[in-house]
Amino acid sequence: MSFHPLMVYDREHFHHSERARLDEGGAFAFTADRRATLDDLLTKYPPDRKRSAVLAALYMVQEQQGYLTANGMRHVAGILDMTPAEVEDVATYYVMFFRERVGKYVLQVCRTLSCALAGAERVTEALSEKLGIKVGETDASGMFTLLEFECLGACDRAPIVMVNNEHWHERVRPEDAGRLVDDIRTKGAAALNGCHLKLEK
Amino acid sequence: MELILTKYVREPNSYTLDFFLKHEGYEGLKKSLTMKPGDVIDVVKASGLRGRGGAGFPTGLKWQFVLKDTPKPKYICCNADESEPGTFKDHLLMERNPHLLFEGCLIGCWAIGAKVAYIYIRGEFYHVQKIMEAELAKAYAQGFVGKNIMGSGFDCDIVIHRGAGAYEAGEETALIESLEGKRAQPRIKPPFPAVSGLYNAPTAVNNVETLCNLPAIMTNGAEWFTSLGPEKNGGPKLFCVSGHVKKPGVFEATMKTTLKELIFDHAGGIRDGHKLKAVIPGGSSVPILLPDQLDIPASFDDVAKAGSMLGSAGIIVMDETTCMVWVARNLLYFYKHESCGKCTPCREGGDWLLKILTRLENGEGEMRDIDLLVSIGGNIVGKTLCAFGDAAATPALTTVKYFRPEFEAHVREGRCTLPADWRASKTPVGAH
User: Fold this and answer.
1) Where are the domains of chain A?
2) Pairing of strands A161-163, A167-169
3) Of the candidates A55, A124, A153, which has its C-beta nearest B124's C-beta?
4) ipTM entry
5) Nearest CB neighbour to B181, from listed A53, A158, A168
């Protein structure tokens, strides 16, 4: 099939999108617990507006398998009456969703002005050196991914290193950054801060 | 002044319902529920409360615009997406005083006739969200939220909705889009949310701090509120001071307080051995003020008169070690990264500005690049659907305006002329 005799539409000549294809991943379905949580969440939005729960559903996919895959997104699409393309459209917009395998601990260093004024760039450098990886990469052990994040909204406690989209480590000095990595290596999740705000009288 | 919003935030259990109830908690709501909704709006209008999110639009007026005669449900959307660089006040309120926000949401819902308030909280505040959800459950259990609130017959739900990392979701129509399960991109206005907002229904979008002011206004009255500040800038205000100061933090003060007092008294002044170079007074999106421009009240109107904006009251302080080309580049990286991509001037222009600033900072720029920055910036301002475009162009325009010799020195010397000891030492600018 061709619109013009001189135009070749075979796979070799036809221009294909350069958009990175999603990782298909394995077969995916929510665990019963997660499905129940999602169903409960859906009651908080009008019945014909299930789509409102898409961010929550994508967080749950990420929680279950570490990152978002095409199969995970299709599963979400099926539950929320969306097309897989609509789910991908949303998933590719928000920075807290990972579309490729990431380390068990994702270190997210705030890089925006107030944190940078307090030395965030050196914190990133220290982490990069300690882990032997560049920003955006995952180390060989699959334990750590290093990312830069935009303003996390805690400029009075700069610089901030968030771990796994949730745990805030504040006033991290470049010389302390390595210790955070060591702590996580030895203590695992116990090394992460739960709630960040220590009361200061 | 007596603290209103942050009086108890340093108390160990200030976030709990028990603590809140012992300290006038839900009294403003109780009083509101004895009044007609229209009268509540009148009180808020008389108080002159202005939106604390950045634009400073009068809240009472916003509520009055919400369509009254409609068969559709109405909504309050609380903007808790606090993402403006340099701003961290709502975080403190939500973490240490979540019931104040719930109370504010409910007063808002009663006033405009909404049955649901959605609190759209940024994804990075998940540790705060967990505290809020636990407290919200308690408020439901004790009849302050849900069916027949405090025996008044008023039903209202509060839903906390988690975002997933998008600065643009702080724009009110983009927030609505995100709540509807789409990309956070702004809508064409009109229609404004007051006519057609969430799920195409009349909606009021209010900032966290704005809603937190309502209980005190309802309890103490509009006159009390206006008396706290300069004309048209009444009430308590939270100021976030960060950067090169000794004691960065959130400070509650009236808008009579000067920027100078906030920086030198409240935040303890510039770090030792250094002197003030420049201040961004209202979050990264607003123009810079110089040290000699700071002796003005930190009010919406006075900061505007000085050529900047109070915005979200995120005051970023920079000392003499700060390279202003680097500052502009740091912020343009942010805006390029966060642009939603809907409008061409912002999407492409932001990218151009970043590329030019990167080469200038690396000493690879030419003199004509400086004028190019001004030209491109000028072609973004006012040409986009939302205020993001203006915000993105501002860091480039304002730094060139006040610090042009620094840009020229970068070109002349072919390197950054102010490489501070707190900046990256091994990674070249723009390496990733």
Assistant:
1) 9-101, 105-191
2) antiparallel
3) A153
4) 0.95
5) A53
